[in-house]
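Collaboration report, partner site 2.

Our partner group contributed sequences for two proteins of shared interest, and the home lab folded both. The records are reproduced in the order in which they were received, starting with the first partner submission.
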Amino acid sequence: MLTKFETKSNRVKGLTFHPKRPWILASLHSGVIQLWDYRMGTLIDRFDEHEGPVRGVHFHNSQPLFVSGGDDYKIKVWNHKTHRCLFTLLGHLDYIRTVQFHHENPWIVSASDDQTIRIWNWQSRTCISVLTGHNHYVMCASFHPKEDLVVSASLDQTVRVWDIGSLKKKTVSPADDLMRFTQMNSDLFGDDRQVKLWRTNETKAWEVDTLRGHMNNVSSVMFHAKQDIIVSNSEDKSIRVWDATKRTGIQTFRREHDRFWILAVHPEINLLAAGHDNGMIVFKLERERPAFALSGNSLFYTKDRFLRYYDCSTQKDSQVIPIRRPGTPSLNQSPRTLSYSPTENAVLICSDLDGGSYELYIIPKESVGRSDVVQDAKRGTGGSAVFIARNRFAVLEKSTSQVLVKNLKNEVVKKSSLPIPTDAIFYAGTGNLLCRSEDKVVIFDLQQRLVLGELQTPFVRYVVWSNDMESVALLSKHTIIIASKKLVLQCTLHETIRVKSGAWDDNGVFIYTTLNHIKYCLPNGDSGIIRTLDVPIYITKVSGNTIFCLDRDGKNRAITINATEYIFKLALLRKKYDHAMGMIKNSQLCGQAMIAYLQQKGFPEVALHFVEDERVRFNLALESGNISVAVASATEINEKEQWYRLGVEALRQGNAGIVEFAYQKTNNYERLSFLYLITGKLDKLSKLMKIAEVKNNVMGQFHNALYLGDVKERVKILENAGHLPLAYITASVHGLKDVAERLATELGENVPSLPEGKTPSLLMPPSPVMCGGDWPLLRVMKGIFEGGLESAARGGAVDEEEEEDAGGDWGDALDMVDVDGMENRDIDAILEEAERGEDENDEEGGWEELEGLDLPPELDTPKASANARSSVFVTPTQGMPVSHIWSQKSSLAAEQAAAGSFDTAMRLLNRQLGIKNFAPLKSMFIDLLNGSHSYLRAFTSSPVVPLSIERGWSESSSPNVRGPPALVYDFSQQEEKLKSGYKATTSGKLTEALRLFLSILHTIPLVVVESRSEVDEVKELVSIAKEYVVGLKMELKRRQKKDDPVRQQELAAYFTHCNLQLPHLRLALLNAMTVCYKAKNLATAYNFAKRLLETNPLESHARAARQIVQAAERNMTDTTELNYDFRNPFVICGSTYVPIYRGQKDVSCPYCTARFVPSQEGNICGVCDLAVIGADASGLVCSPSQVR
């Protein structure tokens, strides 16, 4: 049994499948009816108008209706679209057991404990017939699927067949039961625990057979819709499957605690459902996926106990050989996987027979098309079997997690243990296996017995390799993981609906199917729907626009798809813009989703090409900086918000003409005043002041007077506003004596006093650096798409000179539409209109309808850039930033970091040295970037000028050739650090010494030297620093282990085996000798004392060593045993600080070469704290001489 969906609920008494949609209705003992989507696993709706248990429920086969009957004696007809009960049929006098719609007529049949069967017309909502004759509860009644019959079963131990043909004649009530099966204790399914099979003709019925096996009352029984089997379930907590021809039990499925009450069979597809005490299950009896294997254009697959061959190029299908004797009694024995060796023409077929077995067939060359050649296959048991080479295949022994490699004679050639507990193996290239466990997969090389890659995954069902074997898709129930051939994760995709199959197309896009869609997955993880499916299919091959697939009946189908969408997205992803351009021009790419995708991926100018809606066009034009399109769209929309946003964008681009126009359209006087001020258009500013006066906008008038420095106007405004003291002060301070005297007489005694000893000055705004016109725009290259799209829109290619000319800005190719009222209007006209408007009491004052004005020439319709083509100023072409040149020319991590390409630097360090932890390097990256750039101030109003500092620059060098960046770290600094580290070690400042040596290890990846000899010195320095870091870390750890004398001695002993300078080695030996002597380990102390004497130590140290030698010679014993054997050469693990003796396996850090025990593989190195232990790396690159 393959459980597809399971629910937990109250006892399920009734079930019905929807004939088309993936829905199932479950009626519960609690009175609730649940509508579930078994494909998505979600509860769609619940209906709870019945009181008490609902025992019967049924979907109509074409209308959006279902019927239910319950213990409240009511039959209810519901519309599941409107989520409500349409009407209730009343008439039964006791519990209703079953209800069913007729397949053609508008009838419902119901069976009840009132001993009657009723037939209802649901259109007229009346009971059209009552069938009486049973003398006990009627447990079920149902229409015959083709003929005018009803069959019913009752606790009176009879099954009755009723003729209802007369109902169609609409005359008389139906005849009494046509025939009665009155044998005692024998109904179709019954409390006698038997299932009986009957045959009927026109007049009589007879029992054919009895199926025995259930241990309790049989609650439901069904013929399977597709196969020749009978399914029954019972209160004995089991579902049994019977062979309808042989009348024997095939299989039994049991539950621990739940009695079964009801069965339902899907009318169209291979699904069943069973309701029990605590919910229901939707299940299949057998897998429907055909086993297949593809090689080039040849597809081998199994169908109906034959191996078949399909040629994708000619689309010819033929039978090859019969593959197994029929007659296995149990389900799910069909082939599960198929593996094919094209050179030997051999096929391996695996199935679940006998707990997992395989059969090996060699296909005779001439047998394709002749299916009568029966051959005896070579068989064997094993979890799964796959070809791994031309004439070798691997068989998995699950129990021992071993793989047996066999030849075509089925003889074991080699045995190999697998690195993880494996429950299935898949092909992964010649000689390699992909091993699957519950939560991960590994690729295992059978020759070298090495793990080539490992990946944590959900439970993988299918593995699909790309044509070049560079990528692999791992398919789980709801997840697709795409990884490289070494199992490096590239992307993960989650689906809510089950994933069924997949294949790679020629472009490296993974095409896959779920239960109801064909979808695609791009290399970056973007996915989308290609088309919807009516029935599930299994993709075998994707070739161009054709998908070859097998359906559940084992038929080959070729589906043509529209690949435009994903090919276009792939072209954008791979930066093949010319290809994308061609597709835009020639194909019908459209839709909101595509526009949203282009916007999200940073191609608004491309999205602009697809859009008709003006608002969307406006937004996209602003996003891509295309002012001309934005102006045209804003004019079409003509709303305040759009003009405001257009003004903001035009201001950002320095396009003063359009800014002015946008402010005029929105009557935004304050912004307009400020714009005229900063662009130096004082004549327009003075006209704006008059407009403010006409409109009685005192504050606006005063602001404009301030901007203009017009004192008389300010005094006049203050006087008119009634602020006479302020007007007097303004006039006095600015020397307008006659006005001041006139105001003084008006003020009388209230004349304000002026401050003494101050020299007043006129407040004047600064003159703008550049007056009028637009700001100089850089000659920017058109976006890769824009020029092409616009030329396409104009209906032809643009010749090169014209293209060159159009490069002046981003929008000129699309000339702006001339719309009435789009000119920047002369302020005089506005002034006149405002005056007129004042008389007419206009609402706003009339910036809107101005036509036929005599305009000064420079104020014509604003173009997107007024002076892009002017002869006055041509801006130079922008060069490439120096940092770009540096990052293009160099493959040294330090130079990439100095250029600001941190991601490239990190990738280089990862590839060269296996570095993964970049936290210690962050500050150095920033120092390198800051150290290679300086900044010069020009004018106060202009931005600072960045300056790139080059290494080895001289005045004689060519200005056009860029040298490499200056670096703040060099090798001599590291040598100084080394000396300081030695000094700190000698004086016993071990923490400071450790910091210095670690700093050397962290800085060396970012050091650049010139010659090959210096490269060797750098590598030697890494080795020295590594030895000291390991030794000092052990010594510091030893000093913390006060309570563990054995570990103290071991760490002191290991320290003496680090490759140290002689003075430091003496200190380490003296230290180890003292620690061991104090712990009464005289034999070990003797060894250290002898080694110390060989180094010519200080006299005091030598005397102590000689005394220990004499003491040890009298008693050469150790009181405690140490994990230390000085006779056997060893290296020390940099993380666990245990010895790794010669001959033992170890792994090393790809950067600092520290050694570790194998269990540390994959962790960050404990010595340098940068690289991953055991990672693949090409080696340190620190000089241009290594690259050339």
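Second partner submission, folded after the first:
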Amino acid sequence: MVDISLCVKRPSWLVDRKRMRMASNSQWLLLTAVLLYLTNQVNSQKKSTPHDLKCVTNNLKVWDCSWRALFGAGRAASYEVCIEKRSRTCYLLEKNTTIPPLLPGHYEITVHPLYEFGSSKSKFILNEKNISLIPETPEILNLSADFSTSTLHLKWNDKGSVFPHYSNVIWEIKVLHKKNMEIVKLVTYSTTLNGRDTIHHWNWTSDMPLECAIHYVGIRCYIDDPQFSGHKEWSDWSLLKNISLPPDSQTKVFPQDKVILAGSDITVCCVTQEKVLSAQIGSTHCPLIHLDGENVAIRIRNISASASSGTNVVFSVEDNIFGTVVFAGYPPDIPQKLNCETYDLKEIICTWNTGRPTSLEGPRSTSYTLFESFSGKYVRFNGDEVSANENYQLFFQILSNQEIHNFTLNAQNLLGQTESTLLVNITEKVHPRIPTSLKAKDINSTAVILSWHLPGNFTKVKLLCQIEINKTNSEHELRNVTMRGESSNYLTTVDKLNPYTIYTFRIRCSTDPFWKWSKWSNEKQCLTTEAIPSKGPDIWREWSSDGRNLIIYWKPLPINEAYGKILSYNVSYSSDEETKSLSEIPDTQHRAELQLDKNDYIISVVAKNSAGSSPPSKIASMEIPNDDLKIEQALGMGNRILLTWNYDPNMTCDYVIKWCNSSQSGPCLMDWKKVPPNSTETVIESDQFRPGVRYNFSVYGCRNQGYQLLRSVIGYVEELAPAVAPNFTVEDTSADSILVKWEEIPVEELRGFLRGYLFYFEKGERDTSKIMGLEPGRFDTKVKNITDISQKTLRIADLQGRTSYHLVLRAYTGGGMGPERSMFVVTKENSEGLIIAILIPVAVAVIIGVVTSILCYRKREWIKETFYPDIPNPENCKALQFQKSVCEGNSALKTLEMNPCTPNNVEVLETRSVALKIEDTEIISPVAERPEDRSDAEPENHVVVSYCPPVIEEELANPGAEGGGASQVIYIDVQSMYQPQAKPEGELDSDPVGGAGYKPQMHLPVTSTVDDLDADDDLDKTAGYRPQANVNTWNLVSPDSPRSTDSNSEIVSFGSPCSINSRQFLIPPKDEDSPKSSGGGWSFTNFFQNKPND
């Protein structure tokens, strides 16, 4: 209401402005409406004009063009289409928007709609770049399946005849399965259009058996024509075709008895209407893969090679099980070591190695085919026809006049195939069979004829045969024989044989050129006939132990020298005068004994067999003497020993080495050996040699059938340690030595060359000694090594008397240490040592006593003065004699009363004059003043000696003293360092004291009495001298007391002639020439000092 009233009350000029604004808005609305109408008219005209012309081709021959229908026009619309290339052609199209097919080229197309208000013409420029190549939808001619291999076979026609020229085509094939159309395979396949219709095939093997689910296949193509410059597109997919399980199939599990490659993957499915509960391969459970309906499958990855019976796969349902068998194996290896040869040039045998086992047997095993390319023939071999232990081989018949063969061996099983080739000339690959019917026939004592049979036809080649000849207990001999090939029978002569020898023959053959030997034939033995022995027996001779008979020894001839069976021996001897023969000696006896004198005879021995007698063997009966002969030693090794000797040109026959066991009794003959005359060494080897046995070796040289001993050697093939210990005894004992004697060890017990003895000894009682351990390193065990083997005694010295010793003796050789033999011995008591042990201390004591007595006698004065000094008699002391006139009536005088005295200096004056003067020692009291000019008057050699006399204090009770005071007597130990100097004669009388008596040192003025000195109870009361008299009877106020004339003070005598505790000698020496010191105190050096007065 308010607004309305306000509007009513507006001024007029506001109303006019509003009216003008409303008129302007109306004009704008009018203009907008007109503009919309014009735009609509234009758009209507444009939509009614033909547009979006599209041209495609299917065969590159014609173009099919079309456009979109007019806006608002129905199917009954009509168009005028004019196509202008070189000429103009117009068509009237009713109810159609497709231009008739055009040939490839450059066009200008005009489309004019008829009977449409406001429509206009449309003009299009058309060339090949605006064309799209879209092939026609391909059609599948056939889709089949091989259920045994799960393979799909697809067949279709490419319709190449509709295309004008060659073009490349790419086909895309897709495989789907199950009802939900899952793509399992999408592949491309390339072909070429050749201008005519071609049927194409494509195969695909499914991982899953085809029976497990329905499989669908679709196809489309893409033409890649390099001459077409337009746009190329894929065709539409063809109609899908499918493969399903045959309705009459009773099998539930697929695949059945499948053979697959070990290590690969396989899918096994079960087609059933029942619900499958579980599935397993062998004993391993597998997860289920659900397919259409109740069908399931399992996926087995990297399957292992199966056993010969395969691997079971089982599906379990509620009340039943279904299953199949899977055979996992390998394809055959390339045949290895392919070899083709012939035994008889009639048939070729080819053998090979199959390589890795395939794990497939029976009908799935590998089959082999041998193909010969020149003849075109082949033979087959099936693996199931041979057991595992037999060789793989094929026989191929040789064609006449064909030597070279080209073989190809093919191996094949269900998983693959391989092959191996071989080119061979069969005449060079002949491996004959075993020769048979070997026979031997003797011709004479040194030759035989061998014959044998060899199956085969070898007329085209030469045979090379090898004959092995074996003699008894000897190495074999091989001989090669070349001969022409014959039908089957062959023979040859074998010569250079030994008479009366058993030979064993066998033979094998090959061809020339050589390829392989045949196997050896059976052996054939043959004994050649006898012949005259080739040489006489090996002889030797020895004189009997009594030297009367000569014994002849000979060795049986070996069979290769006897050339027959020896029947007997003929022994004869001859000299310059006569020749005698013994009766024939049978073959079993190989010695003869002759009674001969000491003349030289020639002994002859002849061996006989059925063919005749051998040449004689001769030897002289006597030896050539040799004075320069030494026995030597030698060592062997094992069962042999090496002997050497110097070359001697005089030895023309041979050398003979004879050896025997030296421990044997009787004639020492074991064996002998002959070596050529040009030899200087030989090795003697015998199975009869034993370690530790000594053998005697004798080397003889032959000269004109006479033998001379050149070397005599004793030796061992191996040394051993002695078997026993030497026997030893104690020959003599003393207090400090033992004499031991031992015996030699017998040779048979020594078992080696003696190198020495080891003698051990130590202290020890029987059953307590530890030397049985034989520890030479112990400090208490002493060892003596005796290397002089001729020594048989030993004296052990430096022993202790009356002591038990343990003795051990051992012998040693190069073979080691022998056993020990021990003994306990007690040495005798040493009486001389006991006497000496007693006498020596007594003598020493006597000597010491005598020397001590002499020294004491010479030093008696010194001893007396040191240990027992003279004590002065107090009665003779003048210091206690006082003058009565001086001391009377003076009660203040106090005898023997002194003040405490501290240590003072002792001043000693020396002069360098001849008559030295020693002044009195001055003791300076601490209360007295020392004159200052005293030091100036002192000579240069004034010596000040400082000493500290011990102070001994005593309190003397004096009943007569005033006030009951106590007097003190102080004893000072005065040490006199010097002896008094002698005075001239004029001064002797003026000295009141004089002589050698005691002279008071000084008078000490006492200024005051000593008060309150406490006596120490612990003080040594024996220090210093005590007055002899009773001190209580002394009268301090004595008239005889001396009084000092220098002062009026009280005078107390310092010291007493009898109160001396001197550590020095107070008696001056007798020598007055020099002022020597008396040597204060006792000294060890003074003990040996001689005084002039002694």
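Feedback sent to the partner group on the second submission included the following. The longest strand covers residues 182-193. The mean pLDDT is 76.
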